[in-house]
Amino acid sequence: MSVVATGRLEGALRARRRAGRRLLVPYVTGGLGRDWLEVVRAVASAGADAVEVGIPFSDPVMDGPVIQRASELALAAGATPRAILAELAGAGLEVPLVVMTYANVVARMGYRRCAEALAEAGVAGAILPDLPVDEIDEWAAVADEAGVATVLLAAPTTPDERLARICARSRGFVYAVGLLGVTGEREALARSAAQLALRCKARTDLPVLVGVGISTPGQAREISEVADGAVVGSALVRRLLEGAGPSGAAAFVAELRAALDA
Amino acid sequence: MSALPDARGRFGEFGGRFVPESLVPACIELDAAFGEAWADPSFRAELDELLTRYAGRPTPLTECRRLSERLGVRVLAKREDLAHTGSHKINNVLGQALLARRMGKERLIAETGAGQHGVATATAAALFGLECTIYMGELDVARQELNAFRMRLLGAEVRPVAAGSRTLKDAINEALRDWVASVETTHYCIGSVVGPHPYPYMVREFQRVVGEEARQQCRALTGSDPDLVVACVGGGSNAAGTFAGFLETGAALVGVEASGGAAMEHGLPGIVHGMRSRFLQDDAGQVLEAHSISAGLDYPGVGPEHAYLGDHGRARYVSVGDDEVLEAFELLSRTEGIIPALEPAHALAWLVRAAASGEVPSGATVVLTLSGRGDKDVAQVMERLS
């Protein structure tokens, strides 16, 4: 399967998986602190296989307190989708970029204009948690055309028939939501995480990454025994809110990387 | 128009089901359960029985003689203020609580602005022996302290929401977040014609009783349908229920928003709270805060059916400011001995203005939905007027 036909995000992740690597996608809130782009660069070099950048939204219903707070701070500092994409365009990363935001941000810009703006900024994929598979067609058609992979979410409550549709329509990778709940750190890995990862793996050859509730290097390693890798958001953003900066963020991502490689 | 929404929950381009995947199966299950229940005569009979013997339906249609004389139009008030818990919210909540029990859910959660929906939900939870958590913006808890206490008296837990504008919009966000985590055991009892499909449709159907009763009562009283039907609009449930009874008549339909939350007048199409509708938002799609003296209308969006009815010209949406609302609040109190909630005082404020300007011709017959009573607002109005 050629990289061109499958898209940049999927191609890059598949190549790394083929090389035996467990995948790691850290999440950073765009516009959080003046040095946020430095943070993106730092985590990319510290062992990420792709970086997920959040475009903050005023009403993030899928997010827990940490990412809500980060979004509020970024918005209060004047973050806009256009400004974040303009900065990302100059990021010069070795790994693919994936944007996470909510449907209204994309709808306000206009689906086609937004897909084109993402492509122009060098963004390889988009995660839109409030555009489920039944509502995705209008967006996905223009995103496909622009070469932006639409990553769909699967949830522990998703029945088999829907899961098959989600796996078939997702591009880049499948984002398996590890637990019933919003983003945030949890003490232990939920049992639902491995169960859902296995259900996804049985239905697709796309990389399957688990996110939501993956907070520690140990949890990332544990879930990567059944999934192809992990998305880590709140645990990293909490460190940024506590002032970790680019070097602290890189250190945490390096810890996650080491656990995955061990 | 009453055939809408379609199977995907669309009212034209509005509506739909824009929620995280975790919630989609629950919305599909709810849609199926509501469809079955609504077609089941035993469910309908049980709900009717509750509405009659518990909630006090039918509520009267009151001929407002002194007010009519003052305005030069014939005002008939649909008295939802006389329903149990003091507003139309009970109609929807009893329906959803019955449905939750039928679906085997053990817990109800709800958002509330002014507290009327929270009180109604806590009431139904008490009646059915269900656990109950109410999300209410911190600002609203402060201005509707008594309602927050009422909910606690009824056995509900009230969780103040400190995020964002600390009002209704943020209470909905927090209830959705609760539901994402608790969906297997919990029913989210949305209080207005907002949210993902089937809520805008289901809540309208549960509120349809307001419009259907009013139409029959108006015919019995006057011999014909009214010229005009007026109701206030936050998310728009009392208006949707009222309009549902008159869509097929020749009556003009007018929805009245608070000027600081006029999503129909100033909102742009968008996707928030699970639905495509109109929202007050900035160029980047960030939702703006609404501002109104009435916590129940302090919402930057509107139900998708209203967005549709407005775009197609079947209903017209207007807005009024806080000062006119306070005057209307006093006017109804003094001419009819009815202290209205601040929300329906918006509908009356517009009627006062439109009757004075001749926009509503003198002698017209007007059905105005008095969606709730004003006890909850008396302290706030006292402060404002003193």
Structure description:
The complex is a heterodimer of chains A (262) and B (386). Chain A has 262 residues and is α/β, with parallel strands linked by helices. Helix content of chain A is 48%, strand content 13%. Chain A has 13 helices and nine strands. Chain A has helices at residues 3-6, 8-18, 36-45, 65-76, 81-89, 103-109, 111-120, 137-146, 160-169, 191-201, 217-223, 234-241, 245-261; strands at 23-29, 51-54, 97-100, 125-127, 149-151, 153-154, 174-177, 208-211, 229-232. Chain A has a nine-stranded parallel sheet with strand order 5-4-3-2-1-9-8-7-6. Chain A starts with a helix and ends with a helix. The model of chain B has no long low-confidence stretch (mean pLDDT 96). Chain B has helices spanning 24-38, 41-53, 65-71, 89-102, 116-128, 138-143, 145-153, 168-182, 199-222, 237-244, 263-266, 304-311, 322-336, 342-357, 378-385, and strands at residues 10-11, 14-18, 61-63, 74-79, 107-112, 131-137, 157-161, 186-188, 228-232, 252-258, 268-272, 274-279, 315-320, 365-370. Chain B has 386 residues and is an alpha/beta fold. The chains are: A alpha/beta (262), B alpha/beta (386). The A-B interface holds A 57-62, 64, 68, 72, 75, 80-82, 102-109, 129-135, 152-159, 162, 166, 177, 180-182 and B 8, 16-26, 163-164, 169-170, 173, 176-177, 180-184, 268-274, 276, 279, 281, 283-287.
